[in-house]
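Good morning C.,

I know you're traveling, so I'll keep this short. The sequence:
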Amino acid sequence: MRSYPQNSPEAAARIVALVLISDGHVCSSEFDILKRLGAEHELGLEPQLLPHIVHTLCEELLASGYETGSLMSHVDDSALGSLMAEISDPALRRKVLRLSLAAARADGHLADGETLVLEAARRRWKLVDGEEPSVTQAARRHWD
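The tokens, ready to paste straight into the viewer:
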């Protein structure tokens, strides 16, 4: 799989794209919510580039030897780690996770593949609900 420059819009969008395809199909509701949230603008992408990134990701996964019923069969923990490592900026990480969660929840069902990618991002980036644990814990203490 190609690599993108650190913290580039394409690297960020590819993680969102991975969430989109991780359940085996992309629903129009997922693209609709991303459009309403201004995802391309938020990530610094040119308009209409997100579908191209989704398509490119699918092609790369297919080229890597797709043989089973799931594109995600070629995205192991090491591959997820490499993809997540391309995003080091904390603010960009939060954006990616927020947009990915919105897309995953758009169809009213959180599939296993979506959960796998989202949890990998949370774990590797040390985020809880889109925030660093210390920020989230402080907010919870404030409201408790």
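Safe travels,
E.
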